[in-house]
From TrEMBL:
Stated family: Belongs to the UbiX/PAD1 family.
Name this polypeptide is given: Flavin prenyltransferase UbiX
Organism: Pedobacter steynii
UniProt catalytic activity: dimethylallyl phosphate + FMNH2 = prenylated FMNH2 + phosphate
Binding site for dimethylallyl phosphate: 155, 171
Gene3D superfamilies, sorted: Flavin prenyltransferase-like
Length: 188
């Protein structure tokens, strides 16, 4: 199996726990991964501090890029990152991507993934959605992106918030083409 080069973008939607769990999961999948580059918006850091009560995103052994660093490899298609996961993805970031407004590293990296016909997974979070949000999701889907709403499932009978949030992150891992054991409906 070819090892993957993955961009994880974290934005300021509610649900920092999804980003934390994804980074935790990626650590455990290092045999399938060549590189993980991470970029966070300012609001992502603020929401992480508020919702998780720490700044532990600094503790991961991945390469973190400043949000305006257009020298990051994945700001160009030539670096050949396979997959970009935006988790959680705010409506603001979704809108910028849908309209090609590449004015920071997150929206530029998404622009690159779409133009190179690689995999973009946007774990969108807001409720309810306006028609603007829905149209932006449609646009990104038509451009080849995958909208994976941060909608947890309950049929695995999760016992904690972490287990509940993991139901979303497990789907993201599957969509990214990584192999990981997780609950699967009606499988022993
Ligand atoms: C605690 C908190 C929770 C938020 N939750 C959401 C959310 O669920 N969805 C959303 O689209 N924006 C949410 N926002 C607003 C975004 O952070 C804001 O629109 C920001 O400009 C997004 O910028 P970014 O996409 O660059 O992170 C939240 C803000 C805060 C402070």
């Amino acid at each position: 199996m070819n090892k993957k080069k993955i961009v994880v973008a974290i934005t300021g939607a509610s649900g920092s726990i999804y980003a934390k769990l994804l980074l935790d999961n990626l650590l455990k999948l290092s045999d399938q991964i060549e590189k993980v580059g991470v970029v966070m918006s300012d609001n992502a850091k603020e929401v992480w501090r508020f919702e998780l009560g720490n700044e532990d995103y600094d503790h991961y052994p991945f390469t973190f890029y400043p949000k305006m660093d257009f020298n990051a490899p994945f700001a160009s298609g030539s670096a050949k990152f396979d997959t970009m996961i935006i988790i959680p993805c705010s409506m603001g970031t979704l809108g910028r991507i849908a309209h090609g407004i590449s004015n920071d590293l997150i929206s530029r990296a998404a622009d690159v993934v779409l133009k190179e016909r690689r995999k973009l997974i946007a774990v969108v979070r807001d409720t309810p959605f306006s028609l603007i949000h829905i149209n932006n999701m449609k646009t990104v889907t038509e451009a080849g992106g995958i909208i994976c709403p941060a909608s947890p499932s309950f049929y695995s009978l999760p016992k904690s918030i972490e287990e509940l949030a993991q139901t979303v992150v497990s789907r993201v891992i599957d969509l990214a083409g990584l192999s990981m054991e997780s609950y699967r409906w009606n499988e022993e």
